[in-house]
Amino acid sequence: MKFLTVHGHFYQPPRENPWLEEVEGEAGAAPYHDWNERITAECYAPNAANLEKISFNFGPTLLSWLQGHRPETHAKILEADRVSRQQRGGHGNAIAQAYNHLIMPLASRRDKVTQVRWGVEDFRHRFGREPEGMWLPETAVDRETLAVLAEAGLKFTILAPTQARRVRPLPDGRWRSVEGGKIDPSRAYRWASGADPSLALFFYDSPISRAIAFEGALADGETLRARLLSGFAPDRPSPQLVNVATDGESYGHHHPDGDEALTAALHHIESAGDATLTNYGAFLAAHPPTHEVEIAERTSWSCVHGVERWRADCGCRAGRADWHQRWRAPLRETMDWLRDQLDPFCETRLGKLVKEPWAARDDYIQVIVDRSEESRAAFFSRHQRGPLEPPRQVEALRLLELQRQRLLMFTSCGWFFDDISGLEAVQVLKYAARAMQLAVGLGFSGLEEEFARRLAAAPSNVPEHGNGANVFRWAVLPARVDAKRLVAHYAITALFEDPGEERRIFAFRVERLDAKRAAAGGTTLMVGRVRARSEITGEIEEVCYAVLHLGGQDYHCSVGNLPGAAAYEAAKADVLARYLTGGPSEAVAAMDHHFAGRAFSLKDAFLDERRRILSGVGSGLSN
């Protein structure tokens, strides 16, 4: 009996700006807006039909983006799992993934638990069922991680053959070494550790998987069919499973037309009766393990040195052979230091508001997947020590959001590539910056200076960047958003487009309380007052602004907090009067006097809107 399972690990690094919760334009993805859009067009959408035939997991952060931006593809993914359940005795093709792709063996047990619970809950929320299996990021594993999976009720995970140490027949046969990838990948294995529940492990066929990913097996359907079938032993009487696992992006993104090769190969195999297409859950139910396995501790599928790729200059890299990765260890150590500062702070503060801080963090996924007021109310009813007034609820949400950002800053992609100035490393630094910003707002100061000092020990391969501290100052800090920058963006864009009584700007709602506009000598001035609310934490702030467009790309915007409506009205009257009588220079002086603080310009508008304004300026858009 021949069974075939093709597994696709569909995942992209989370790319959202941590302050805006949206992916901004990425020039390298042109002609698409960003890499998520491009890879969806090349891979995720074309493979929707294949998902009914193959085993798959999608990263929860990617599914969240698909749901919001490509809902038709998101719906087809869910439908593919529903169809596969009908075809395979209730065992769906979809499996879960540890939430944000951090390297589990490098995480604390508490973080492992949260990653698994968030991955399971996100899966339940989307697919409407319990996951049977879970994909571990980079298949990185240790015994504690497997124990956490088993305790969560998961039935299996998938590893590389080099991650097996030894096997023995059940119930108590003799152990035999399988180090070096010598394990038989055609069956499921039982893993157990003491009193912990057991878990099944599948080990994918490495030569065939490597051929698909790197050696041209996706050239066409017939080539792929032949390569898949080559894994079967012709004279074996017992059931055998050929299972392969690769990045799902192999099918169409890494290899153009790879999705078509997969479709053709599976159709031919199925129609010819060469093998029965199945998934891991269905195979496991029909063919339980007959052997037990021990794993090699702290290993992965993409680092021959174990998990060193995510904490050391081990030699594993993505591209430039002449670049070092000496930056990896200081980056990891700096992130660990920040974690160790933030966690006790959060535990103490959150413990005053909820019954059990870490249980609340685990359950915060219910709010992440559903930001409605009803979801938040249900969350607080489960966890609050006593009735919390709105300001205390906001405090709790800020602390929980701090923890979400703290987890995101360990996303594996930050260490995978070749330099600390790369997009992925900068992204995890942005998550760290957002976590620190939330901490500062809650009264924990001094973190950023020490964070940057530690990052100075992370050398960049790019001479002009120097080290991680410079990258942090150059690429991360300018991206930060607070209420004043948000309102500056609102004010600048309001000169071109009436925002109405309320405007949603990414993860914020901005309500117009007042606005007065004037024009003279080819310039335009607007003075206004707004109420800004975060959809993530519920924070509310009333802010006043004055913005002057001097023509072309020349904007001057002042933003500040004034003590009440009367102070705002007086400031507005003075700025308008001095503008109309003394001109732009007098207006700027009045703006900076009344709205003391940093002055904003067009470069402070968010990227996509800034590009749109510049395009409008270039095409003669007037105010």
Evaluate the radius of gyration.
Answer: 27 Å
Spatial sequence of strands, sheet with the most strands: 5-9-8-12-6-7
Oligomer: single chain
Indicate the structural class: alpha/beta
Bulk shape: elongated
CATH architecture of the largest domain: Alpha-Beta Barrel
DSSP summary, beta strand count: 18
Helix content: 40-55%
Counted by DSSP, the helix tally is: 22
Distance between the termini: 73 Å
Largest sheet, described in full? 6 strands, mixed
**CATH top level class name of the largest domain:** Alpha Beta
Keywords:
single chain, 623 residues, 7-stranded beta/alpha barrel, 3 domains, 6-stranded mixed sheet, 6-stranded antiparallel sheet, 18 strands, 42% helix, 16% strand, elongated, disordered C terminus
Written description of the protein model:
It contains 22 helices and 18 strands. The protein is an alpha/beta fold and 623 residues long. The protein folds into three domains: 295 residues, 7-stranded beta/alpha barrel, CATH 3.20.110; 166 residues, no CATH class; 136 residues, no CATH class. A hairpin with a 2-residue loop joins strand 14 and strand 15. The longest helix has 24 residues. It is elongated, with a radius of gyration of 27 Å. It starts with a strand and ends in a 5-residue tail after the last helix.
